[in-house]
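Hey,
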Amino acid sequence: DALGDVSCGQHRAANCAQCPQGNGAPWCNGDCEWDSRANACVVPSEGEQDLYELLELSDSADASEIKKSYRRLSVLYHPDKTPGQADKFNGIRDAYEVLSNADSRVLYDTGGMKAVKNAKEAEVGE
């Protein structure tokens, strides 16, 4: 189905450039990443862990749900209690750092970790 590969705001399109509302790259909604050099959407990096899944949350979770889940999971997977789970614990911590910050969360929701990393790199460059 040609109109169904990418969520473009509230619409579906084959890619962001073909958004029926003409929104283009700013409306990728996290389903793809806009490559301005290619003037096209590309699929996000394979293997990138979804931060909401990592915290066992839906993407509509509010700040208190994010904090509660983080606390529960960080205790459960703390390296002192669960040896060999340091990577899981670090992932939970990193997910919380992104999702608990309103600005980082918006970036993540619209462009994935690439958008969050790009914003951090831009801050360092200022």
